[in-house]
Amino acid sequence: MTSSYYLGLDGGGTRCRARLVDAQGAMLAQAEGGPANVFANCEAAIGVLEALIAQVANEAQIAATQIHIVAGLAGANVPSVQRRLADWHPACASLRVVTDVEIACVGAHGGAPGAVFIVGTGSQGACWDGENFTLLGGWGFALSDLGSGAILGQRALRLALLAHEAVVPDSPLTQRLMRRFADSAETLLLWSQQATTADWGSVVPEVFAAAQQGDVHALTLVRQTAEEIRLMTQPLLARQPGRLALMGGLAQPIAPYLAEALQRALTPPQGDALSGALALARRA
């Protein structure tokens, strides 16, 4: 009798993670790869995903055709992307593609109804009523992603350039950021023309470190991000009061700057996005 195996894939704008378990939930293999945002670069994302599928199957020494996959992918909420993904048929027993925020929502509440707002390289919210999802945001860096690392990083570099040109006073943060580019506006310009969302977000740790040291510009930037998170979470709390989890790379560092009412309304996540993907795979 053929055994069943379950693979969760969590593909974001910075990295993709994979976790393979058996029918009893025992972990067999884990792996990590590069970005897997299917809106930003669908072909490259699929390449990352297929490499991870092959890697974990090989590590566990099982055939990929025995694996049931749920992939939660950044950008999978866009209808045109969904149509492209309909033609993706990796070797597996079954495949379900959802967004990364959906698997995060299921993982955060152990499969029970609830809401989540992801603040990572990008941002997106979701509510889960036990059967269906309602999504909020997630329309990309140019139009959406309020409260995200990419937006915070871009604002920080804009401010660093303003300070470099003496439009606003400089600070230790703006000086350090410009030193990344040899104190050259042209170097920053050329970099910006090729920068990905992950590149913009790469300066975020410096912003939070400077905020902890009282840097006035860093504090302004971080507080603006916190206010955007408050704004985006209000509709989620209206749908699922008392059952909102904040997840993603910014969730921990931004927490002290959030409005007190929002801090009280948040609930700690029970599991991560991969646990949500695996729960959906077993549910199917």
From TrEMBL:
Residue span(s) of domain ATPase BadF/BadG/BcrA/BcrD type: 7-253
Top-level taxon of origin: Bacteria
Record GO terms (molecular function): kinase activity
Signal sequence residues: none
Keywords from the UniProt entry: Kinase, Transferase
Family annotation (Pfam families): BcrAD_BadFG
Name of protein: N-acetylglucosamine kinase
